[in-house]
C-alpha cells in the first residue's frame, strides 16, 4: 500500500534501522527496487527528481509507481519527490499523488544560488502547511552539501562553487537545525555532514572518518524527533567501476561513502539514505558488458535484463546492510 514517509521513518526509528531511498526514472529501475524489496521484505521509498519527471513525463512517473503498488501489494511504499525547488513543484507532486515531498530550500528556486536561512524557513513552512493537511510528509534541507576532503560545495546540486569553504560552512549547525524544525514543523531533515551528489565524491580511499559522525550525533541530540536524511549516499563500489572501465567506459579514480559509515550514521538518527549513483553505475556496467560480449544482439529486452538484474542486486545489498530485512 501507499504510505506516508512519516509512518515508515517512525517505524525505522523505533526499530533502529535506515531505509534507502532509491531514485527511479524508468520501468526497469522501479522493477529492480521492488523485486529487491520483495526478496528481503523491506519497506520501499521510490523517489523521483525533477530530472526524472522531465525524462519520463509526469503521468509515466505516477503510473510506474501505481504499477509497483499493484504488482507488490504487500509492500509499504512511499512515493517521494526528491529535491523540490519551490512550493509550486511540491504542490504539483502532491496533486500527482505523491505521499511525501522534499522542499529543498537550501537553494533558491533557480537551483543554483545558496538561499538565505529566512528564505529556507519561509518556503519549507509553506510546504508543511499545505502537505500536512493532506497527510503528506515533508523533508527539508539545511546546510550546504559538500566534501570535507576537497572542502568544495556539491557541484551537482548547485551548491558547488570553485571557492574553498570552511569546515563549518560544510556542516549543518545543530542550533540552527533546532530552530529550523521549530519554525517549519517538518518531518525529516537532510543535513550536510560531508557527502555530495554524484560519482565523484572523494579522490582518495576513505579511511573511516569521511562523515562527520560527531555532528550527526549533536544534531540528533538537539532534534531527536526529526528523522535525519543523508543525500549523496552512494558507495561507488570499486567493482562496478572496474566493470565499466573493462568494457570501454572512462571513469577516473573515485570513491564514495563506505557502507560501514552509513551503518554508523544509522545508529545516530539517520533514517533515509538517498541512493541514485550506485544504481546508475550498476546498470551502465551491465549494459557495457552485455554489448561488448554480444555485438550481434539488438533486442532491447536482452540488454535491459542484465541492467535490471544488476540494479536489483545493489538494492538488495543496501536493504540488507541498512537493516530493512523483514521490516515491511
Ligand atoms: O539529487 C540528485 C539525484 O541523484 C537525481 O539526479 O537530477 O539527475 O535526476 P537527477
Ligand atoms: P548519490 O549521487 O550519492 O547516489 O545521491 C543521490 C541523492 O542524494 C538523491 O537525492
Ligand atoms: Zn539529493
UniProtKB/TrEMBL annotation:
PROSITE patterns: ALDOLASE_CLASS_II_1, ALDOLASE_CLASS_II_2. It catalyses: beta-D-fructose 1,6-bisphosphate = D-glyceraldehyde 3-phosphate + dihydroxyacetone phosphate. One is catalytic and the other provides a structural contribution. Keywords: Glycolysis, Lyase, Metal-binding, Zinc. Catalyzes the aldol condensation of dihydroxyacetone phosphate (DHAP or glycerone-phosphate) with glyceraldehyde 3-phosphate (G3P) to form fructose 1,6-bisphosphate (FBP) in gluconeogenesis and the reverse reaction in glycolysis. Belongs to the class II fructose-bisphosphate aldolase family. This is Fructose-1,6-bisphosphate aldolase. It comes from Ramlibacter henchirensis.
Amino acid at each position: 500500500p501507499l504510505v506516508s514517509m512519516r509512518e515508515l521513518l517512525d517505524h525505522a526509528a523505533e526499530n533502529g534501522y535506515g531505509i534507502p531511498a532509491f531514485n527511479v526514472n524508468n520501468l526497469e529501475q522501479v522493477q529492480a527496487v521492488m523485486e529487491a524489496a520483495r526478496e528481503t521484505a523491506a519497506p520501499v521509498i521510490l523517489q523521483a527528481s525533477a530530472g526524472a519527471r522531465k525524462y519520463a513525463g509526469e503521468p509515466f512517473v505516477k503510473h510506474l509507481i501505481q504499477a509497483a503498488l499493484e504488482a507488490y501489494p504487500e509492500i509499504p511504499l512511499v512515493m517521494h519527490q526528491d529535491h523540490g525547488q519551490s512550493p509550486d513543484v511540491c504542490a504539483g507532486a502532491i496533486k500527482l499523488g505523491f505521499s511525501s515531498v522534499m522542499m529543498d530550500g537550501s537553494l533558491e528556486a533557480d537551483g543554483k544560488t545558496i538561499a538565505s536561512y529566512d528564505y529556507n524557513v519561509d518556503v519549507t513552512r509553506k510546504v508543511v502547511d499545505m502537505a500536512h493537511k493532506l497527510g503528506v510528509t515533508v523533508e527539508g534541507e539545511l546546510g550546504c552539501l559538500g566534501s570535507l576532503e576537497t572542502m568544495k560545495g556539491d557541484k551537482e546540486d548547485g551548491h558547488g562553487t570553485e571557492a574553498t569553504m570552511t569546515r563549518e560552512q560544510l556542516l549543518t549547525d545543530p542550533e540552527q537545525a533546532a530552530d529550523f524544525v521549530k519554525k517549519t514543523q517538518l518531518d525529516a531533515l537532510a543535513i550536510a555532514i560531508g557527502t555530495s551528489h554524484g560519482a565523484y565524491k572523494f579522490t582518495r580511499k576513505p579511511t573511516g572518518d569521511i562523515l562527520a559522525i560527531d555532528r550527526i550525533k549533536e544534531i540528533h541530540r538537539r532534534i531527536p524527533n526529526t528523522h535525519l536524511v543523508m543525500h549523496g549516499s552512494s558507495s561507488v563500489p570499486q567493482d562496478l567501476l572496474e566493470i565499466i572501465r573493462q568494457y570501454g567506459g572512462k571513469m577516473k579514480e573515485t570513491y564514495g561513502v563506505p557502507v560501514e559509515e552509513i551503518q554508523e550514521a544509522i545508529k545516530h538518527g539517520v533514517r533515509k539514505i538517498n541512493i541514485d549513483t550506485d544504481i546508475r553505475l550498476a546498470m551502465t556496467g551491465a549494459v557495457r558488458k552485455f554489448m561488448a560480449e554480444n555485438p550481434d544482439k539488438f533486442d532491447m529486452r536482452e540488454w535491459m535484463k542484465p541492467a535490471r538484474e544488476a540494479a536489483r542486486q545493489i538494492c538488495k545489498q543496501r536493504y540488507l546492510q541498512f537493516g530493512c530485512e523483514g521490516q515491511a
